[in-house]
Amino acid sequence: MSLVNQLITAIFAVLIGLVSGTLYIMSDSSRAILENQLESHAQDSATHLGLYLAPYMAEEDSATIETAVNAIFDSGFYQKITVTNSEGTVLFEKNTPPLISDEVPDWFQQMIHITPPSMSREVTHQWRQAGTIYVQSRAGYAYEKLWRGAQDSILLFISLSMICLLSISYLVRYLLKPLKSVEDQAVALSQKRFIEQPKLPSTRELRYVVQAMNNMVHQVRNMFDEQTRNIEELRRSAYQDGLTGLSNQRSSESQLAEKLDYRDDFGHGSLLIIRLVNLQKINELIGVDKTNTVLKLLANQLEGMASKADQSVLGRLSGADFVLLTDQTDPEQTRVAIENLETEIEKQLHQLGATESERPVISVGSCSFKETNNSKQLLSEARLAAEEAARIHGLWKQYDQVQETTSEPEDASWKEHVANAINQRQIFLQIQKVLGISSEERLQGEILARILDRENKPAPAGEFINVVKDLGLIVEMDKAIIEQVLDKIATHPLPLTINLSREAVSSDAFRSWLIKKLKSCSSPAKIMFEVDETGVLNHTSIVSEFRKELQSLGIKFGVDHFGVHPSGFAYLYAVQPDYVKIDGSLIRSIEGSAEDKFFVSSLISVVHSLGIHAYAEHVEREAQLSILKSLEVDGTQGYFHGAPTPIDHPVD
Fold first, then answer.
1. Can you tell me the distance from the alpha carbon of 433 to that of 426, in angstroms, rounded to the nearest whole number?
2. Which phi and psi angles does 79 have, rounded to 5°?
């Protein structure tokens, strides 16, 4: 029971006790008054009757006495009247049983006892005693009067009590309203949301409570902000270039390896090496500070190019070299983007006084790929192309020895095959287990979607993902995967996790369709959804609302590829996912890198402090698992626990 209800109940109980006591005292007092009235009434009646009957009592005229007594008795106010002569012989007696009206309840009669007194009057005639008259009033009259008075008091009490209760309830709720806000603060704090009450209550004690709660919320928020700033500083020092804020060489190469060597789902794209020509000469012409300004401008322009791609990796490899991985494959678009980039950098150099710098001011080498097996090979090819462009004083050189290794050419029939597979809901589903770090409990199975090729073998994601994008079927593919999973979720032993594309998450129509589907699902708690970190950062408010809708259905939500986006992870406070999966680029070399180990440890500490579970992706070696156990990660996923298996196969 809430504090408000307890206070109201206590006040009501006090009111009942107070009124009950008051009613009892009033009833007892009224009883005494009524008894006095009955006594006076009986005495007066005996006196008046004696004055009238005196001569008849002296003559012992029973007939006249009877007539007179009956006339008085019939009024109903008397219980007994007795007339005796001087010797005590009864001349006439009239009485009636002590009847009480049915309106007076028995409990009231038992609670209040009324015994009307019998009053007497000696009668004399002509200076001699003629006899005595005894009169006793009727008790029922007193009970009826007393009961009617009690009823009026009870009705008045009920009316006043209802008015008092409503008034007290409103007053108490108004006075204790700040406590409800304090309760909301405490609940929000447990969810790592920080709410302060701007308006302090006027009641002194409540004002102190609210002030104390506000101070605690402020201190906890500062603690988490400080922790976040420390980790962000660690990220910047370990993984970001100090001048431009882009990923440094180590982080860039690690992310390239993660996307191109391990995940194998990038599809087609281009890798570009962008080099600022003759950096040393520019330094001599305009100085270090102005040169740094040029490098920052170049980084900003490249960030603009990267933002136009669905998938990208951008970083600074060395003083003059930048790398950009993008899923853009149109040579004309690439040429236009590079020319615009060169124009902006040349304009900046001219403004800063480097009029004698070589033209073009940048040289770009690129290589296209359709199916990538080796990120280092692509880097090498792009560097060769950039060096060739610089040697011939050209702006852009495309590496011209790209090997065609795609197992299925992107012809019309392959596109038709992919479209039919999606539209007919014939997606080949595999699962990869996520195991608990201590008990090796099977926490979930992540769904990996594949298209079967013409030989009925699962094609790597890189072979069909660009076709799906070109056909505009990304959202439709997500729907196909979800429908197939929902058909199997009830009988599958593992909770199944589906990765949602950014296009699907940002679509209002898709989210409405999904929530409707999930509401009709018999086992919604056995399904989970993930969105990659970039998608969450690009659509934080949408993802936050979507997460709340899933939570209302008992469905868990996670963030995939966590910890690599340069924008940080302040979004965790808004989204409040159930778990995160630390990106594999941070795990691949964790046993040999103190920086990776410390950074992953910090990430785990942050998410644990928010009540979020931390899983590690791409665990392939015992040494990695051992390190992750010492860091108290909650679960691991990767080939160390076995290769992905078809969804219909028994789970070990």
1. 22
2. -100, -35
Helix, strand or coil for residue 614? strand
Amino acid at 355: T
What number of other Cβ atoms are within 10 A of residue 60's Cβ?
15
Closest CA to 274 of 197, 340, 179: 340
Residue 407: per-residue pLDDT: 42
**Residue with structure tokens 């990120």?**
375
Nearest CA among 603, 564, 614, 612 for reference residue 584 = 564
Give the pair of three-digit tokens for residue 145: 């009067």
| Residue 52 backbone dihedrals phi, psi, to 5 degrees | -75, -40
Q: Could you give phi then psi for residue 248, rounded to 5 degrees?
A: -80, 180
Q: Are 106 and 113 in contact (CB under 8 A)?
A: no
Closest residue by Cα to residue 465 from 583, 369, 335, 581:
369
Q: pLDDT (tens digit, 9 = 90+) per residue, 548-594? A: 999 999 999 999 999 888 777 778 888 989 999 999 989 988 998 88
Indicate the SS3 state at residue 438. Answer: coil
Helix 139-175 and helix 177-190: axis angle, to 10°? Answer: 50
pLDDT band at 403 (very low <50, low <70, confident <90, very high): very low
Using alpha carbons only, give the angle 304, 472, 335 rounded to the nearest 5 degrees: 35
- 384: phi then psi, degrees, rounded to nearest 5: -60, -40
Task: Report the distance separating Cα 115 and Cα 117, nearest Å.
Answer: 6
Q: Output the 3-class SS for 37-71.
A: HHHHHHHHHHHHHHHHHHHHHHCCCHHHHHHHHHH
596 half-sphere exposure, CB direction, 13 A CA radius: 19
Tokens of 277: 């020509």
Map residue 303 onto helix, strand or coil: helix
Q: In this structure, are residues 228 and 569 in contact, taking their beta carbons and an 8 Å threshold? A: yes
The reply to whether omega before 360 is within 30° of 0 (cis) is yes
pLDDT tens per residue, range 312-355: 899 999 889 999 999 888 888 889 999 999 999 999 988 888 77
Question: Which of these, 610, 524, 476, 555, lies nearest to 546 by C-alpha position?
Answer: 555
H-run or E-run covering 269: strand 269-276
* Burial zone of 619 (CB within 10 Å; 0-12 exposed, 13-18 middle, 19+ buried): buried
| Residues 6 or more apart whose Cβ sits within 8 Å of residue 162 | none
DSSP label at 652? -
Q: Are the CB atoms for 386 and 362 separated by under 8 Å?
A: no
Q: How far is CA 334 from CA 31, 284, 325, in A?
A: 107, 31, 12
